[in-house]
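Forwarding the complex inputs:
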Amino acid sequence: MAKNPPRTKPPRGNAVIGQSGGPTAVINQSLAGAVEALRDTLVRKDVVKRIFGMRHGVNGLVKDDLIDLTKVKGKALDRVARSPAAALGSSRDKPDRDYCNAILNACSARDIRYFFYIGGNDSSDTCRIVSELADEAGYDMRCFHIPKTVDNDLVGSDHTPGFPSAARFVATAFAADGLDNASLPGVKINVVMGRHAGFLTAASALARECFEPAKKKSGFEPGPHLIYLPEVPFDTDRFIAEVQEVYSRLGRCQVAVSEGVQDKDGTPIATRLAQGLDRDAHGNVQLSGVSVLGDALADLVKRNVKTSSGKQARVRADTFGYLQRCWPDPSPVDAAEARAAAEFAVACAARGFQSGSVAITRRKGKKYRAEYGRIDLRDVAAKTRHMPESFIKGTSNVTRAFSEYCRPLVGPLPRLARLGS
Amino acid sequence: MAKNPPRTKPPRGNAVIGQSGGPTAVINQSLAGAVEALRDTLVRKDVVKRIFGMRHGVNGLVKDDLIDLTKVKGKALDRVARSPAAALGSSRDKPDRDYCNAILNACSARDIRYFFYIGGNDSSDTCRIVSELADEAGYDMRCFHIPKTVDNDLVGSDHTPGFPSAARFVATAFAADGLDNASLPGVKINVVMGRHAGFLTAASALARECFEPAKKKSGFEPGPHLIYLPEVPFDTDRFIAEVQEVYSRLGRCQVAVSEGVQDKDGTPIATRLAQGLDRDAHGNVQLSGVSVLGDALADLVKRNVKTSSGKQARVRADTFGYLQRCWPDPSPVDAAEARAAAEFAVACAARGFQSGSVAITRRKGKKYRAEYGRIDLRDVAAKTRHMPESFIKGTSNVTRAFSEYCRPLVGPLPRLARLGS
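Prediction (whole assembly, two chains):
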């Protein structure tokens, strides 16, 4: 941010915190972390007088629908921190310049000088626009984006708070569902969240590790046997052939499919396979909260994949849905990092930085350790990160490098076993 | 069992154990419990020589696809016991008399004198037929049914192993999803397993208790706000009116719907709302593993439920699917009871009983405690238990009596909180 000197004296005034976008299992750790850190620093020093919470993100802010968080008891905050989904309420609004002007006016009316917004790439873009408008208006307000998204698609970070807990759910679900599939063999398709980035679908691969070291002895080949990411063009014929190959070999096949798989022209398979899909406020086709992709793929398998005796294969599909982002058993690493990322944002504000987003990087070395850094809002805002090529193996798998990347994030997974194959 | 003397000397020979029907999170506790109890009693006394496991239920038995479990290490058995889904493999076969004759022949060929079958009402019927055929043939074989079903629909028992863990998943899911729904308000429909009996759908009501005592203070009204059971005829117009009422009052509405809801003539709503549904081997419409009911109900709400400004309500539907029956965090009560029920069946065999099923009853008193009893196979076989009227409140809720019934079964649920309503 060349236009702004990086550090100036923190202005006196109030602070506001909001949550935006799809909730996660640890987004309230960020909320609690920000509130506690503000109280420990800027409030204690009498620089910040009141801490407001936006009800339903910037939508509540412009309507002056605020909660005073300045004196919320630590115990209540702890209970909220351990609860999934946005405790302040969230919003799907994606503000343009006019909307952001209304945000700035609302902040000015409440003498808000610190703006913290917990969210994904759209939220970082809101921070960026508001920050630029404040600069233009000569209103000294510090805007900080605190990262959050189960999609793990923010650029500049090794990973994003919210993703590890969702990945933990997905890996656990595939491990348990894999045993179910081995009990009553057939083709099982599980549809995983992630419109553009395949990280969450890829996390299903960790399910395979729930069975070591017993798997070699028992001959049990744990799933998922096929993983379809939005980064790899989805070809219907190849999909059928790959399912048939696994099914012929094992008598069953567990498949992980991203809700966002698309063909080589970038058309979502869900759109191609079904009619009448909703579009959300951003004009995107709604892929979560409907199950059409899983059912359509199951139908495709039913019509094309055969048993050795030429019969229809038994096929089932589940769409994991919102439980992926709100299951109340977060990754311990994720809970700690979501909190630490918010604390880092407050520390930036307390040290006099103008604005920014928090990036999580991974320290090199054998033992996993996260580090936090401030990055320019323009380097995050409205950008999307995808699975790198080094994480993708062929047309329907992930690499060992991905598993090594993901493993330390999700926390301990269940150790499961089976008798025989 | 008037035809058979209740107790005679246990015959020498082998034992076989199988698992049948939809798997559960604790069905392997029953397997491990039966094997360990056999080893501690009849094997130790040299009455039983070998313990066989059927691969995929009676299907494996008639094909002589067996695993020798006599000397499986305790540690391996423990790991299996803690793993969901049928470790031996399960089967959807529903044997008729001819099939049961083949079972009997297979038992005779292996000198099997003890037949243990872990399953639901179809499995108890298999036990009954095989037991009667053995009697007719003068072949001394003891047949014991070990109860298992997430549907909780076996007659003669207070509840059935497998149900408490599935109920635990459903209650936890509704609590977390309820916070998600409060974050991004709208109508959220969650479809729960249970074709004929509404116990599992009813268990969603326990989600409301995850928020006490904070809920009064915050004004947060936890869901599910509406619960639709297969026992209560489903009326589409009333459904729309009830959703509209809650939505108008709270700005959101979380709905629990059993996959088996049916109209006043007994026609499943899923069948009415959609075409081309599969039928399973029993001729039943396949309701799990497809998401058509949730999507169709969501569509119904979209077309008929309005915001205060006359706009379409935001509507999402999730079908919880197989994770309900295999999530690897079982209720501790359920895990212990699934094991104890199997041990009780073995104890019956060791004490010389001819055949039977295990019924779990609840001791009267403040503190929850289960008791185990032997009941006649004919009193369980192929019968279905439904939610009693005392558990059903109006058209779309459950009573306090149901919550009191269900609460001690599921184990501790998460304590969650929110800020404001």
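The longest strand of chain B covers residues 112-119.
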